[in-house]
Amino acid sequence: MEVIIRPDKEKAMELVAKLIINAVREKPSLVLGLATGNTMEPLYAKIAEIHKREKVDFSLCRTFNLDEYVGLKAEHRNSYRHYMNEHFFNKINIDLRNTHLPSGTAKDLDRECEKYEQKMKECGGIDFQLLGIGKSGHIGFNEPLSAFFSRTRVKALTPTTIAQNSPLFDRPEDMPKRAITMGVGTILEAKRIVTLVVGSSKAEILAKAVEGPVTSMVSASALQLHSKCVVIADEKAAANLQGRDYYRWIFNNEPEWDEFR
What we know:
Elements: E1 2-6, H1 9-26, E2 31-34, H2 40-54, E3 62-65, E4 67-69, H3 80-87, E5 99-100, H4 109-122, E6 128-131, E7 153-156, H5 159-165, E8 178-181, H6 184-188, E9 193-197, H7 203-211, E10 229-234, H8 244-253
Parallel strand pairs: 1-10, 2-3, 2-6, 3-5, 6-9, 9-10
Antiparallel strand pairs: 4-8, 7-8
Helix pairs in contact: 1-2
């Protein structure tokens, strides 16, 4: 794992956007793993802006999202399919047939999870996985005690996650209590992982995930086991990290970051 600290939220998002854009340019048929949430909205807006300004071609890309709520149709304003179409897919030249999310309304949810895993394999696996970290340390909807070898499955959401996400619904009580999510094991099979973490509210959990013990109580700590994972944080999110000085030194001195300085 590598940790990069940028001065503020804007700079952190700018770096992640450039990494994604570069990856698409290097491999036009890139298989992207995508995340949702408040942190990702301005990031997707930035990527769409670069796409438009610099004519970056997404037409051959394939995408797989981390998760979807159980029971919500794709057209529901709180579904992650709706979120992705509104915030990203409809703003770039991607073929919607190549954008994949699990169906939260499938009659056989277990079979839907198996099909999702199979589809990823047919595409050659995830080349570039974008992640955020939830307040309980979850990646996707892999809540505390999620097995590190877990695959795409239906997962019960914690009260913390429900409290965090339910205000986004017109009637908070209508938020589903279950979701389909890629497993921790599925996520760790991505060839490359970039995790974006911003804001002081994430400082405590980021420190646990990056510098604490590897534990299923903090599913994001499993990222320490990945050979090509970089966490990009702003100064507020990085406030509790013991290795802050070293992480800043990496960005300022390592050749791989030359073009981004």
